[in-house]
Amino acid sequence: MDSEHRRLVVVAGLPEVLPLRTEESGQRHFIVAALDGVLIDVITVVPPSEECAAPYTDA
Q1: Mind giving me the DSSP string for the chain?
Q2: What is the pLDDT of residue 57?
Q3: Rounded Cα gap, residues 1 and 21, in angstroms
Q4: Domain housing 22
Q5: What is the total count of domains within the chain?
Q6: Residues 11-27: tens digit of each pLDDT
Q7: pLDDT in tens, 23-58
Q8: For residues 6 and 25, what is the distance between their CA atoms, to the nearest angstrom?
Q9: Which residues pair with 35 in a beta bridge?
Q10: Residue 2 CA to chain centroid, in angstroms?
């Protein structure tokens, strides 16, 4: 994910709309704007935080 962020933002120079971040809900992602203005959300799944997953798992 970090290398893709570097490739699109640093190397290709696409405008970063949302910086690279890890969400508690289980996504690591960033958003860039393509040259035609289309927004691209690049996402990878990561384990959610324990607090976020707790309502959906057996204790």
Answers
A1: -HHHHIIIIIIS-PPEEEEEEEETTTEEEEEEE-TTS-EEEEEEE-PPPHHHHGGGS--
A2: 83
A3: 10
A4: 2-56
A5: 1
A6: 999 999 999 999 999 99
A7: 999 999 999 999 999 999 999 999 999 999 888 887
A8: 23
A9: none
A10: 10
